[in-house]
Each structure stands twice: as C-alpha cells, then as structure tokens.
Amino acid sequence: IVEWLVDLGIEPSRRQAREDINNGAISMNGEKVTDVNTDITVKNSFDGRFIIIRKGKKNYSLIKLNKQNSIME
Asked: What keywords are annotated for this sequence in UniProt (predicted)?
C-alpha cells in the first residue's frame, strides 16, 4: 500500500506513507490500515471495483480497479 499511496499522490513520499500508516492516519474502506505491507486487492474493494482511501479526517481518494485488478484512477 505504501507505493500505491505515493503513486496516487496521496502521500509525498514512502517515508511519510509509512509514518502515517503507523500513526493510524490511513484508512481503506473505513478500516484503519495498520500494516505497511498491506496489499490492495479485489478482496479489499467494494463491488470488486472500488476502493476508498482516507488520509486523516478530510482527505478521501476513490480508486477504481480495472479488469486486470490494477488501478485506473
């Protein structure tokens, strides 16, 4: 998830992404992400297509997965 957060522009760096995950600032579909090695997969998605990432209280990002289960943005 760390690389995805940086690639999507949610986090400015991998270090900051790891720090925010460890501090409980990142949620995926309403559940806190507590492991920096968490993968984003179809299992984590709504309807097999959408994932909502939240940073803090006000910053939300909607990720749309394509048929190959990779990010479309």
From this structure: Ligase, RNA-binding
